[in-house]
Recover the amino acids of this structure.
């Protein structure tokens, strides 16, 4: 099967410093785009948030990560880890006390990730999730570029291919809009705070996914 | 030549915190898969080990990296680098004192790497090697996904193509199993501790590579 | 359009610790190679410099990043961030006091980045630039591998395709050589120090780009 590429921009509304699990959103997009197998590149189009892979089970891991990162990159500037020398306040300060630390945290983590897709989903370890890590304190609108190169499953009936594909893309776009509304109405912190139980956000996203797949089953 | 993709999962048995050079294993797989030129994506399917590229010459570099990382992310929790404020113990502690530091170290380094393949081998600088960096203290079984997109060399005699390719894949699988046995019987720390001299592990891996290539020469 | 791959090695002469904006050089290469849409993988073929994406607007951000990183990874070795324990001097010291910190900084940032190309240019956020981050104090010659997989625009007139493509490649090579000369004659620190105003270096690179495109317009 020849390789093709598909691109999409995901919009995420964040609500302060913390982690936003992108795994389900990404898997929904992969299914809607019918990418069977391939490499997915993710790029955060910002310099004060990053992408990271970490534990999906105990939400305390994410809390400890936040706490650690705040201690490592404090607002008031760095003192050498050796304990020697003066404290060094940041010079880039006019965008607020959280801005320069956010740029540093971005360089210490990642702005892009490349992952494998297999059987129409991200190939991740059992305990892995893909997170957008917001480093600013206030609400932000963040764009993540999803760019896959791989084998895209086509329908056997060639006439249906374009119709199916267009409806899947429309569904994916609708899903993206719906997700944005969901995120604006709900506290995204719920995602990380529920110890693995299904939250309202999860249930809504599952419903979005059902709607996305419905189009294809109806044909 | 049209682009194709090949995937493989490498299993590595680690024996405590430290570095495991993956360069030869990866190059053996590239040769067995006959990938002439392409991009290779590596993903560590775990949240307490990472992938890093660093010096292949002086093993003291790896020792210093370990020492530095332990100082940067200590077991007892972080004190702000500014020197101000209280020590902050980790809340996620029930998996052992090395677990939360391992998650932090993973986020501060990388879970995935993308590298170029040229002339059937990784394109690396003279002093570069690709390492699995184990952050846990105890023995762990680690899976690394290798996913290449590129040009795959085929035999001129078309009937032999599939046979060759299947035998190469079988050889690669056997090589992977053999490597696992090799690692279980030997101390993988030898890899980093021998100042560039060939170790038993290196010699065994070279033998595996010879066996892998033998299949093709026999045809 | 079938996917193809293109590779190129960029040579950068650095002049001490700091940031070198690669964005224009990369975009020039993408245009010369006529890559319409695809994924670009960048690899720094060294263990004491890295690749990072950060702010392109206020040069104080880059100054603060440097200052922070020097405090985080000091020459004299690390003291645990907890404030407990002894200072730990580096064992790998024979290549100079900046060498081991450079290896650590490389592992804390990135040796490779994967980004999207759309409409013959890098898909970046408004405030993002791609930097080579030199961690050594002295002048160094650095090689960055550019490896794109994507759709390459061909001319409609098939006879012209190869001629165009070869001339574009030649132009790209010339552009690379010219850039090298430009960098040797000018202080690359100018790139980051001019608060967004066009520098001599910028103007020369624009001229290189014009020359690169001229070949195609002439046909």
């Amino acid at each position: 099967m020849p390789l093709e590429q598909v691109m999409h921009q995901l919009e995420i509304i964040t609500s302060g410093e913390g982690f936003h699990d992108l795994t389900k959103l990404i898997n929904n997009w992969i299914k809607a785009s019918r990418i069977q197998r391939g490499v997915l590149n993710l790029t955060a189009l910002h310099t004060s948030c990053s992408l990271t892979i970490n534990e999906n089970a105990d939400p305390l891991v994410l809390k400890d990560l936040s706490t650690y990162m705040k201690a490592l990159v404090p607002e008031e500037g760095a003192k050498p880890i050796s304990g020697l020398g003066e404290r060094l306040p940041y010079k880039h300060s006019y965008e607020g006390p959280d801005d320069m630390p956010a740029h540093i945290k971005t360089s210490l983590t990642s702005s892009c990730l490349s992952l494998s897709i297999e059987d129409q989903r991200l190939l991740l370890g059992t305990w892995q999730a893909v997170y957008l890590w917001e480093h600013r304190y206030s609400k932000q609108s963040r764009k993540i570029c999803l760019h896959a190169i791989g084998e895209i499953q086509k329908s056997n009936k060639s006439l249906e291919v374009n119709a199916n594909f267009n409806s899947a893309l429309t569904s994916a776009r609708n899903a993206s809009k719906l997700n944005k509304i969901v995120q604006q109405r709900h506290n995204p912190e719920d995602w990380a705070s529920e110890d693995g139980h299904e939250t309202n956000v999860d249930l809504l996203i599952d419903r979005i996914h059902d709607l996305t797949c419905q189009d294809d089953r109806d044909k």
Observations:
- Residues 18 and 65 of chain A are 9 Å apart (CA to CA).
